[in-house]
Structure formats: C-alpha cells, structure tokens
Design a protein that fits this description.
Number of domains: 2
CATH topology of the largest domain: Beta-Lactamase
InterPro entries: Sig_transdc_resp-reg_C-effctor (IPR016032), TF_LuxR_autoind-bd_dom (IPR005143), TF_LuxR_autoind-bd_dom_sf (IPR036693), Tscrpt_reg_LuxR_C (IPR000792), WH-like_DNA-bd_sf (IPR036388)
Keywords: DNA-binding, Transcription, Transcription regulation
Largest sheet: 5 strands, antiparallel
Protein name: LuxR family transcriptional regulator
Shape: globular
Organism: Ruegeria sediminis
Oligomer: single chain
Distance between the termini: 23 Å
Strand content: 5-15%
Length: 239
Amino acid sequence: MGTKVDLNPVLEELDGTSSLEDLERIAIAIRNKLEIDHIIYHWVDGAGDQYGCTTYSGAWEERYRERNYHRIDPVIIGCFQRFHPVDWKTLDWSGKVSKAFLQDALLHGVGNQGYSIPIRGPNGQFALFTVNHSCDDETWQEFTKTYGRDLILIAHFFNRKALEFESGRQPEQSRMLSPRELDAMTLLALGYSRAQVAHSLSISEHTLRVYIESARFKLGALNTTHAIATAMSRGLIVV
C-alpha cells in the first residue's frame, strides 16, 4: 500500500472480460496490486437475490447467505440511501445486532477497514463495490485518498460488465448509452478534462466529442454539464 500503482493495464483487461469468472480473476489481480485483503462486487435485489464476486473466504460467503446478513448488514443499510463512497468508520455500528455481525465478520477474515462505493441504476438497481483491509485508520485514510477516483472507475467497470453478463438483471434504461459513452460521461463527471478523458480511453478528442454529443442527444441534454447531471440523476453513472 506504499507507492501508487498504475491500474490502467488491469482496467483494460477488465474491459475485455466476458464472464463472472473473469471478473473474479480481475478482482484478485486488483487486490494483489493494491496490496489489500479483499475486493467485493455485491448486488442485492429487492427479492434478496444476491449476485457478484468476492475475495472473501468461502466460509464467510456461505455464512453471510445462510444467515441472510444482507438484511442487517450496516454497510448495505448505510449505503442504500447514499450516492458517494462511504468509509465504514462513518457507519452506525452501535446496535447490538450490528456489533454481533461485525464480530462474526472479523472472525471470518473480514478486515477492520472498508470503503464501499454505491452503484445505482434505473428501476432500482443497487450494488456495492467494496475494498477491505486490516490496518490502522491513518494508513487507510491515505489509501482511500490515493485511490478514491480509481476505485470509482473500477466500480463502474465492474457494474457495467456484470450487467452485460446477466442481461436478465439489466434495467432496460441502462442500455440507453453505449459503454464508451458511459465511460466518457463518468470520467467527465469525475472532473477529468477532455484531453485526459481521451487519453484514458485511448481515443482522439474528435472521437470523444462524437461520444459526448451522442450521449447528450440520447439524454435530451442542452449541453455536456446537463448531460452529466441527467446521467447521474438516472443512475447511469456513479461518481
């Protein structure tokens, strides 16, 4: 967790994945590069059906499902009404049930630090992308400060790919923008300049302009800022 590592090669590989097994392999690769304990992409729908991938132990995955922990998990409950990344330390762990859940999690190898990115889409789509580790607060604060933007982008990629693999789960409206249009809108929303976005996506600024104008037209937006705001309000992108 020392010197910042370049995650672009992993992002490029992630963009080419074609199965949930590929996502699991990429999650392990990102975890190893970042030198943290765990990475989790977790989707829970209204019926309680769970989907995603994790580097947690099989024992914890099984226990979590068997005990329906998604119904009392402070991370899910705390993030459901939020749109920005959440450090677990800011959540409410004071209740008896929450304390018992946390103790059980720690006993099963879950780290004491967590950082979760809520991912929202049309028609109630809700997922979380989480990084988890065991370390002191100061070290974790420095880590999240260093990799915050990268993690949001990775979360976006994971969610987009998961939707591609499980078309039955994909809200119809989320197919409105193409993958490249979503990428462009996400990076612009994060504050990247057009030149930086074009470089990150390995395209020319002219091609980027085409993507932006196409997205603006599809969203019925007056300008790029309006397009970004509309995409965020519809849950098409997360920042």
